[in-house]
Amino acid sequence: MWAVLPSELGCVCDQAVPADWIARWQNRNKFYYYHQKFRRVPDLSQCLEGDYLCYYEAEAQWRRDRMVDQEIVEIVRERMAACKQREGPNQFQNCAKEMELLAQVTKAYQDRYGDLGFHGNARTCLMKQKHRMMEERKAAQENPCSPGTGSDRP
After folding, report:
1. What is the C-alpha separation between 70 and 63, in angstroms, rounded?
2. Does the keyword Iron-sulfur apply (predicted)?
């Protein structure tokens, strides 16, 4: 195999290159364009006031999390459609687990990202979460005997 290699003098020379040298060079300089891993950054509630870099990183993290959650919903929806296609008229009996999982996943997605719109961001999502938690706390204070509060009294 022929290749153009820089020599020690700084000029370019044509010379034969062993195939094992090319393989070693390619193995040393591998680039992976898939499964990019980002480190988790603090969310917006943990950023200090005026730390705009932290705001930016939290926003980018939120957008990645939203895309992952969208893909999760889409995968569960595709599994549900495949089960319906496969089972035909027996889909209500045989696809009950998939239906329940789809209901749970879409409810969780809607609770977190619903009503944010196309231009939703980490700040509005955090405010929505805060308001939801305040409503749940207020409902628990108004009705202390509701299920899930740990009280066994009627």
Report:
1. 10
2. no
Alpha carbon distance 78, 137 (integer Å): 36
Predicted TM-score (pTM) of this structure: 0.64
Q: Give the pair of three-digit tokens for residue 47.
A: 């950023």
* Residue ranges per structural domain of the chain: 1-31
Q: Is 7 helix (H, G, I), strand (E, B) or coil?
A: coil
Residues 88-110 pLDDT 10s: 999 899 999 999 999 999 999 99
In this structure, are residues 21 and 2 in contact, taking their beta carbons and an 8 Å threshold?
A: no
Listed residue (148, 113, 101, 129) closest to 45, CA to CA? 129
Q: Which residue has the tokens 């969208």?
A: 70
Token pair listed for 126: 């955090």
Q: How far apart are CA 30 and CA 16, in angstroms?
A: 23
Query: Two tokens at 105?
Result: 């996943």
**Given the structure tokens 């893909």, which residue do they identify?**
71
d(CA 95, CA 100): 9
**Phi and psi at residue 138, in whole multiples of 5°?**
-65, -40
